[in-house]
Amino acid sequence: MRVWPGALAMALLPVLALIAGQFLPAYPLRILDMILLYAILGLGLNIIVGYAGLLDLGYVAFYAIGAYSWALLASGQFDIHLPFALVLLIGASLAGLAGILLGIPVLRLRGDYLAIVTLGFGEIIRVLMNNLDGVTNGPQGIARIDEAHLFGWTLSTPHDFLYLLVAMLVVVFLFVWRIQESALGTALSAVREDQDAARGCGIDTTRVKLVAFAFSAFVGGGCGVVFAAMQRFVSPESFTFWESLIIVLVIVIGGLGNPFGALLGATLLILIPELLRAYADYRLLLYGMALVIIILARPRGIISRPFGPTWLMRRLGGGKC
Amino acid sequence: MLTFDHVTKQFGALKAIDDVSFAVKPGIITAVIGPNGAGKSTLVNMAAGSYGVSSGRILVDGVELQRLPKHRIAHAGLARTYQNIRLFDAMSVVKNLEVALVPPRIGRLVADTFGLTPRAAAEERRARCHAVLDRLGLGPYAERQAGSLAYGQQKLVELARAVVAGPRVLLLDEPAAGLNHGETEQLKQHILALRAPDLAMVLIEHDMKLIMSISDTIVVMERGRVLAQGTAAEIRANIEVQEAYLGQPGAIKDIEAAARGRRNRVRIREGEGLTWHQP
Question: Residue limits of the ABC transporter domain (chain B) (predicted)?
Fold first, then answer.
């Protein structure tokens, strides 16, 4: 029996979301939205970190590019009011383009060196947003952002965004899973395992990594657009190095190179600080301790097997895939 | 056909390869032998694009390799195995082979990701991998993680990965190193079975028994130069070669003494040539 396990597992999620959407009040719904958003970001970053094995510490830059796309193209800032679907495409594409432009010079680097350069890139974008006063209002940020409409459907409450985010999660999940199963995924894994041997096998490692960077950035940009539409306010403060770190943690905690890991990691990373809100004074301390304990207990991530869907289906007694 | 045309490789003041010219013909097995430091591995690494060429040309069927990037060299039809196994450890055995069949065009790769290429192409690639694995007796291990296999099997997987794309030139860098007697015998049968009219095979080995039994022609190198070339019988008869390499005790001692004189430390393990260690 052949099943498409990813699709099957993902089919359950909209159902769960629908149920949750009916019963949950606004505050927990907002948290659920954030979990989904970070899960999507984690899935996007996973392409570059999990599959290609390249540590990107500046992923938030692509997120910021997406967010500012919506903030500038659908607000009173320049009195431009483009439709949400179009800006979603523009923001993601701009981020993807930025990924390629960044990738061309830096993808010769590996390991720590690449991590430092991408970290720098993340800071450059933030500092740029902070100082382009005429365009971005600098540190004050951009308010007066439009309400998003998607094909006649108004996105304003956490409830609305829940559906949008679930839909996006499913799409991105399938996309990432396709990458993993396709020849590109094979090439990326080879690059991660042994770049020189991969080249010896005929893999154009530079281009393959560039494609991975672009795909990854594209997803990040899309998330940024949704984030801006959700908050209806953006400022450089939302795009600090801390955010990049959280996204990296999402996939490290959840399990690298594993789509389900991102979901689990996002749940923990967003939920733990929310649950600790009552202990405001010790919140960060406890949060840090929780992360350290998770890493000590599961150094390779909570779902450490790299081929999540297949593994899950085998566990559930499903067919071969 | 693989051709070395007046190839020289300079590492600083050291001429590792000194004006080497020879051709490796398709359909036969050509062994390259010589003591450690003779330049055998350097030659392989230059052909495969790991090292640059100081001067001269290296050609596969008339295509010059020396200026091509590594992946283009692979596309030109040159495949290799490594002295130290370099598999993609975390990937399954069959995935390791699929890496060698990844479509070279990036547009094709992207289209494949979005499911825009025919499924049949991917299945055909997979089938080809399985066929090669079956031929080398690795069929049962296809879904195993490559890094989890025994050393001898890993060596075979590397061989399978090198041949799956149907190369014109196959470079085997010490395929028998570290294998036991039975495994070496098995390897020998596999290498002989791979012999094909349009495949030029280069074998770098220290196991003289293996070399003498499967090589059609032997190139002897010493200190970066080709010392002699001929059939196994001819080489065996060549006194000069014997002195340089084939284990006349006196000859080895001379080299050892010379090496000590250059303040190098020399170690000889059984079944291997000389291993040089910088002090």
Answer: 2-248
Rounded CA-CA distance A138/A122 in Å is 16
Contact B93, B51 (CB under 8 A): no
* Contact assessment for residue A176 and residue A259, using Cβ atoms and an 8 Å cutoff: yes
pLDDT given at position A91:
96
- Residue A283 has a CB neighbour count (10 Å cut-off) of 16
Nearest to A186 among B74, B89, B95 (CB): B95
Nearest CB to B109; choose among A175, A183, A200? A183
Query: Which residue ranges make up each domain of chain A?
Result: 25-238
Q: Could you tell me if B113 lies within 8 Å of chain A, comparing CB atoms?
A: yes
For residues A135 and A72, what is the distance between their CA atoms, to the nearest angstrom? 8
The complex's ipTM works out to 0.82
CB B5 within 8 A of CB B57: yes
Residues in chain B: 279
- Do strands B78-80 and B169-173 pair parallel, antiparallel, or not at all (unpaired)? parallel
User: Which tens digit of pLDDT belongs to each residue from B111-140?
Assistant: 888 888 888 888 999 999 999 999 999 999
Pairing of β B29-33 and β B225-230: unpaired
B35 and B247 in contact (C-beta within 8 Å)? no
Half-sphere exposure of A124 (CA within 13 A, CB side): 12
* Nearest alpha carbon to residue A167 among A262, A25, A304, A33: A33
Instruction: Name the strands in the sheet holding B55-60, side by side, starting at the edge strand that comes first in the sequence.
Output: B14-24, B2-11, B55-60, B63-64
Residue B150 burial (C-beta neighbours within 10 Å; 0-12, 13-18, 19+)? exposed
A190 touching B (Cβ < 8 Å): yes
Token digits of residue A95: 């981020």
Per-residue pLDDT reduced to its tens digit, B16-25: 999 999 999 9
Domains and CATH numbers, chain B: 1-77+167-246 (3.40.50.300), 89-166 (no CATH), 255-279 (no CATH)
Using the beta-carbon criterion (under 8 Å), do B88 and A193 form an inter-chain contact?
yes
Contact A306 B103 (CB under 8 A): no
Residues β-bridged to residue B60: B2, B63
The two structure tokens encoding residue B23: 């051709």
In this predicted structure, the answer to whether residue B13 has a pLDDT above a threshold of 70 is yes
Q: Of A1, A5, A14, which Cα lies nearest the Cα of A260?
A: A5
Give B16 to chain A, closest Cα distance, Å: 22
- Give chain A's residues under pLDDT 50: 1-3, 307-321
